[in-house]
Write a structure and sequence with these properties.
Helix 6 crosses helix 7. The protein is elongated and about 125 Å long. Helix content is 45%, strand content 14%. The protein folds into three domains: 71 residues, no CATH class; 41 residues; 168 residues, 2-Layer Sandwich (Nucleotidyltransferase, domain 5). A five-stranded mixed sheet has the order 3-2-1-4-5, sandwiched between helices. Strand 6 and strand 7 form a beta hairpin. It is an alpha/beta fold and 338 residues long.
Length: 338
């Protein structure tokens, strides 16, 4: 009964509708009949052409929504919005505007930002311009490493800035073939781990240590601070000599050899790499051995802390045949190109 009433109302209202509107509704009804004829498995299958037809019809005549029964109005609106998004995505595709930043440039930018915490976007932007990169400062700011707090240097940079002004000294004992005890005195600079002085004596005294320090450092090359342990041999005479040379005395805490780590590590290397494999005959023999090791240590031996370089930097050789040369009587070898 309700359907019959609706039909009568539609027949009576049809003369008052515009011709274009009636044609739109008829077109919508015909398209729905076509879809229903393709009905498979109990569900109507709509193609992209069907969707485009309904969307365009809705754009021209929004009132046709009341005559469409195969799809819901919200579905039609969803198709329309999806088409709108795709259209403007195609419209605003990357044909103009700023060029994309390559992965290599982004990696370099982040490396600069991480290695230079005190640099801002203008400083990094200037470096990139000098390297031939055409990039805006706003792009540099976008890809910089984000930090939580204010910029600060790392421990590696802090130590590297202070190492040229620091040196360490220490004494160690070596037994001889006759079971005598000899004392070796070493001084090492912290910036290049260079072994700058080795002395040997049977009876270390404060006067002897003060003389060794004077001979080790020219007046113009003395370090600002000299780190030592609390051995009794470093008495008032040594401290006065350091003060006269403009060197500040820095004794470590009692029973804390790790605070004199560079000198302790040097002494351990001398023992493990050389003296533990030899029998010392006497004072003159030990002096010659330690001088040979100092030459090997400073000029040949590579150090991890120096990026696998020697304290006295070795040049990289790329051309020539490789030859092996003995060091320290054959305990070690080094290799050169001839």
């Amino acid at each position: 009964m309700i359907a019959l009433i609706r039909l009568l109302v539609a027949i009576l209202a049809s003369p008052f509708k515009s011709r274009s509107r009636l044609e739109a509704e008829n077109a919508a009804l015909r398209q729905q009949l076509i879809i229903l004829r393709r009905k498979l498995g109990g569900r109507a299958r709509l193609t992209n052409t069907d969707r485009w037809f309904f969307v365009q019809l809705y754009r021209w005549f929004p009132s046709v929504l009341r005559g469409i029964t195969t799809i819901r109005p919200e579905t039609l609106l969803r198709w329309h919005r999806a088409g709108f998004r795709r259209y403007w995505r195609w419209k605003s595709r990357g044909r103009v505007g700023r060029p994309q930043v390559g992965a290599e440039l982004r990696a370099l930018l982040r490396q600069m930002s991480a290695e230079n915490p005190l640099w801002g976007a203008p400083r990094i932007h200037g470096e990139l311009l000098k390297l031939g990169f055409e990039v805006s400062q706003s792009t540099v700011a976008k890809y910089m490493v984000r930090r939580r707090g204010p910029p600060s240097q790392g421990w590696r940079a802090f130590l590297a800035n202070h190492a040229p002004h620091l040196a360490e000294m220490d004494l160690f004992v070596i037994p001889t073939i006759g079971f005598d005890m000899l004392y070796a005195f070493v001084i090492v600079r912290l910036d290049r781990r260079a072994l700058v002085w080795i002395g040997v004596t049977r009876h270390p005294t404060a006067e002897w240590v003060a003389r060794q320090i004077t001979e080790a450092f020219p007046w113009s090359e003395a370090p600002r601070y000299l780190i030592r342990d609390r051995d009794g041999v470093f008495g008032p005479i040594v401290r006065r000599r350091l003060r006269a040379m403009g060197i500040r005395d820095k004794p470590i805490a009692p029973a804390s050899p790790w605070q004199n780590a560079f000198a302790e590590r040097l002494i351990g290397s001398i023992r493990r790499e050389y003296l533990d494999h030899l029998i010392v005959l006497g004072e003159a023999h030990l002096r010659r051995l330690l001088r040979s090791y100092a030459d090997y240590y400073n000029e040949v031996r590579t150090h991890r802390a120096l990026n696998k370089d020697a304290p006295i930097s070795r040049a990289v050789q790329r051309i020539g045949a490789i030859k092996s040369r003995k060091s320290l009587g054959g305990l070690h070898h080094h290799y050169v190109r001839m």
